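Lecture 7 notes: from sequence to structure.

We start with a single chain of 121 residues. Read the sequence below before looking at the structure.
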Amino acid sequence: MSVGAARKKYNVQYPDNGGGRYSDKLSDEDWEAFNNIKRASDNYLEQVGVVLMMLTMAGLYHPKLAASLGASYIVGRFVYTRGYTSAGFKGRMYGAPIMSLSLISLVITATYSAFTTTVLA
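Now the structure, written as tokens:
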């Protein structure tokens, strides 16, 4: 579920992000469900810039590897989001390792590409 749909379902209006006047009217269960959806979305926004930059840098010289790492990151992101929004904090533990390994591999590949094209060139 997207944050926009969660805002409509739980009647949490802008600019409330789960800690303001509108969310004070929610039950504890609804507040937790809304915040899990919001946190999964915020986590995506925190990482998307780094992932896209590393994907671009790695893809310049290793396109097939970068594409496969990007695909595995997307799978991990999907599992992470589904788990977080349905089971809370503990539900994210299935997708987080997939995302982390994919991102670390992208950083290593991008660093290797930058190093080989500048220092070793």
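The CA atoms of residues 30 and 57 lie 41 Å apart. Keep this in mind for problem set 3.
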